[in-house]
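Researcher: Let's do a round of design. I'm pasting the structure tokens now; please hold your answer until I've finished.
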């Protein structure tokens, strides 16, 4: 057998952590995300809430309409990250290679560490047992010959499930008459194109493979291969240095038409992006500003820049791009650093270094003024503030008090 792969996926991860830490929530429809009176979406929902039709990424207003008696909570990402670290440390011990997909999900290549299917099965049950005993949480595990099949297997018996797909033939038999969306490479828009052509099931893809390839090109070729059970992708540990861009965005609870405040937000977002770029050792040669207006129309504006990862340079360019955009109430604003590279061998030109100390000093001064105006201790809490959840709460606090 060429590969033996486990896919481990936690069951309603955020909700399960909260229920573990507060047993009074057990059995209740718990929705983690925004609160019903806020803008935002569902991050995850307990299985009790899912019975009402609530699911991840659903608008929170729709979730409340479906489940008005649910328990709604903001996520605590700091806690979830800590638990995630424990989970992946436990899981990775069984694998020769581990590919982290999210805080609560991973592919594990156990081809060498297990050596055979029976031992791999024992690994899967040990992972389930230890995850429950040591962390008080349940996970679903799929054992299969490929990444696609392992992912499908882990979904098959959720929650707290286990399923095996040993061969391509077993995979094809399992999914042949299911909707095309069962293939994880088929997104909503691709499914719509296939459906318009009368291709609705995996069997349809296989029987009309030539048409799918002509319609979707290279993507179509891949989809037809997966539909036939073919997937030779290897488990590849995530390398943050392979990111195409690093960005941060914020959705306001109320629309903002105050340009000076938007520039203040850009400063904080730029500092957050700088820290993330520093952690992974990347520089960028382009900046992109993203804005979604109150009417839900989104625009992006981009421009090149000298190689940098400094908040000063990012903020300067983002603020310039902001000045070029229509002055209408803003729902969302974001900034990202693109065209990334480690810059290990490139020698910076003198003009690249020019004025950098002055720019950094300007940013430090602006941040100090911001902290004084809003009564926030930026200097002593930067590491904490620039985590996504804390940054959101900080900016929302500033929004509510910006005229104070």
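Researcher: That's everything. Go ahead.
Model: Designed sequence:
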């Amino acid at each position: 057998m060429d590969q033996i792969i486990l896919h481990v996926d936690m069951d309603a991860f955020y909700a399960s952590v909260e229920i573990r830490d507060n047993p009074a929530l057990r059995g209740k429809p718990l929705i983690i995300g925004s609160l019903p009176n806020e803008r935002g979406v569902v991050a995850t929902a307990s299985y009790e809430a899912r019975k009402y039709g609530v699911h991840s990424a659903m608008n929170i207003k729709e979730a409340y309409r479906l489940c008005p008696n649910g328990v709604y909570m903001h996520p605590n990402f700091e806690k979830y990250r800590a638990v995630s670290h424990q989970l992946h440390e436990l899981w990775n011990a069984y694998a020769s290679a581990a590919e982290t997909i999210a805080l609560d999900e991973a592919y594990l290549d156990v081809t060498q560490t297990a050596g055979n299917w029976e031992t791999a099965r024992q690994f899967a049950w040990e992972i389930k047992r230890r995850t429950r005993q040591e962390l008080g949480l349940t996970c679903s595990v799929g054992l299969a010959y490929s990444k696609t099949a392992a992912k499908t297997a882990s979904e098959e018996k959720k929650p707290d499930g286990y399923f095996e797909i040993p061969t391509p033939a077993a995979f094809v038999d399992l999914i042949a008459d299911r909707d095309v969306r069962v293939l994880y490479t088929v997104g909503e828009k691709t499914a719509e194109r296939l459906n318009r052509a009368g291709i609705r099931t995996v069997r349809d893809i296989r029987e009309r493979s030539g048409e799918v390839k002509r319609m979707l090109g290279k993507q179509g070729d891949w989809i037809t291969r997966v539909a036939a059970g073919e997937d030779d992708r290897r488990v590849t540990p995530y390398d943050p240095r392979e990111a195409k861009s690093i960005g941060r965005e914020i959705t306001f609870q109320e629309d903002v038409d105050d340009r000076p405040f938007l520039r203040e937000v850009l400063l904080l977002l730029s500092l957050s992006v700088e820290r993330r770029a520093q952690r992974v050792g990347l520089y960028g040669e382009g900046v992109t500003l993203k804005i979604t207006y109150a009417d839900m129309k989104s625009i992006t504006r981009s421009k090149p820049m000298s190689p940098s990862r400094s908040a000063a340079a990012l903020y300067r360019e983002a603020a310039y791009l902001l000045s070029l955009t229509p002055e209408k109430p803003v729902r969302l604003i974001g900034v990202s650093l693109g065209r990334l590279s480690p810059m290990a061998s490139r020698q910076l030109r003198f003009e690249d270094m020019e004025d950098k100390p002055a720019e950094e000093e300007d940013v430090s001064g602006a941040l100090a003024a911001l902290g004084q105006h809003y009564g926030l201790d930026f200097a002593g809490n930067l590491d904490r503030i620039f985590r996504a959840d804390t940054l959101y709460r900080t900016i929302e606090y500033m929004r509510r008090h910006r005229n104070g």
